[in-house]
Specification:
Mean pLDDT: 96
Number of strands: 9
Largest sheet: 7 strands, antiparallel
Oligomer: single chain
Bound molecules: zinc ion
Shape: globular
Length: 145
Amino acid sequence: MALLRRMDVKERFIGRIEHDADLLEALGELCRARGIRVGWFEGLGAAKKGALSFYDQQTHEYRVVEIDQPLEITGLVGNISMKDGAPFVHAHVTFADDAGRALGGHLAAGTIVFACEVTIEVLEGPILERVFDETTGLSLWTMPE
Ligand code: ZN
């Protein structure tokens, strides 16, 4: 079964993340600066190095994978919702190396931008709040009627 709520697109931003920024931190700062509480985004570009994580479904822990080399950001996709009263960015990323090999996962702090272009859709509707879920060990959306 799926939980769905209607949202409308309020506005759309397009821009770039600056050179040497930590990608995940920069996305969070951008949301706080613009007052974005619910949204969806995507992007592409290049990173000086990458950091992603894999969620172990048995232990309920994230394992971080650091990739210390220049990478293409072939896909960045994520959403913005509220967690503990503040905007929370959840992003997944696919990187490609100089041979075109791809690696992907949950975007972690430590991905340093070489250049990155993003678009962000700001949504209007019920506030999505992340609350701890016993079954998965993750903070998942609660969806008020
Ligand atoms: Zn994730």
